Amino acid sequence: MYGKESELVMKAVVIEEFGGVEVLKLKDIEEPKPKPNEVIIAVSKTSLNFADIKNRTGKKAKGEFPLILGLDAAGIVVEVGEQVKSISVGQRVIAFPSNGSYTEYVVADEKLVFPIPDNMDMLTAAACPIVSFLSYALLKYLARIQEGESVLIHSASGGVGTTAIQLARIFGAKQIFGSVGNIEKAFIAIDAGADEVFTYENFVREVKERTDGQGVNVILDSVGGTVSEQSMNCLANYGRLIHFGNSSGKPGTFLTNQVHASCRSVLGFSLGTTRKERPEYLKHIADSVIRLISKGDLRIKIGHVFELSEISNAHALMENRMHSGKIIINVNDSIK
Fold this sequence. Notes:
By secondary structure, the chain is an alpha/beta fold. The chain folds into two domains: 9-129 and 279-330, Quinone Oxidoreductase, Chain A, domain 1; 146-269, Rossmann fold. The chain is 27% helix and 26% strand. It contains ten helices and 15 strands. It has helices at residues 50-57, 122-127, 129-142, 159-170, 186-192, 203-210, 225-231, 271-277, 282-295, 311-319, and strands spanning 9-14, 25-30, 38-48, 73-80, 92-95, 105-109, 113-115, 150-154, 175-180, 196-199, 216-221, 235-243, 265-268, 302-307, 326-330. The strands form three sheets. Strands 3, 4, 5, 6, 7, 14 and 15 form a seven-stranded mixed beta sheet that branches. α5 (186-192) links the parallel β9 (175-180) and β10 (196-199). α3 (129-142) packs across α4 (159-170).
């Protein structure tokens, strides 16, 4: 099946040291073998996430070299471990692999493999896992968003931002604001459904003006630093600030007297930690977002598609913040 029985090696992009895009090398490596609770997937496509940049540069990655980067993949199951019950050979799936995803075959725990319907193409499927699972968890379970509430989404033009904007609307948000580092990207968030988009320099003033000085009920923050700190100045009483990333590279500081009297909350979330420690938490999320996507209610914005051999160009595009939407890496276009 896609050469799985006969081939002993596969193409993969590996790094053998931390550094710039030049450390990404396309090589032949040994194919993975599944443990009893794992499956092997022939990869059609994978996606690029900001965590990949941090892992490549050594700001986040742990483990021994050589390393294969990549967090998610879409493809077809070609082998299952003896204890696997819910996944079968031949199924079209999305997954969070345990051995990286910049490769022709990946291995993944059964609990982190999710079947996709026939009407979902592999391009959409590859764009889906990180941004849709994360956005759904943030709004539904962390923020506990209620119909009629207002939302501010930082980094609104990115993959998570444009997905969260759509989900906020689906969940009944009354006002949806976005913020961006470059106002020229504002139209991307507007196209996704944001009511208005501001910059990181003026969002506090603009949000307060549009909420009669009250602020918003929910803020999604993946930026950190001063953006996180300033967000408290436009978060309403009983509001929830969800912090799930640190793209600025700088921590933000919150004071206890900013939360108790106003009944506000600052909540943290990591999809990576959840995959490792509570993978069962993701099944309902997967079912929900896959259903929304297959019905056409949720659309993942895809900005760029690169071949696996062009992975350095893809990293450079994201690292220089020149992209919008998801960056997809095509591994094997024959896998549909």
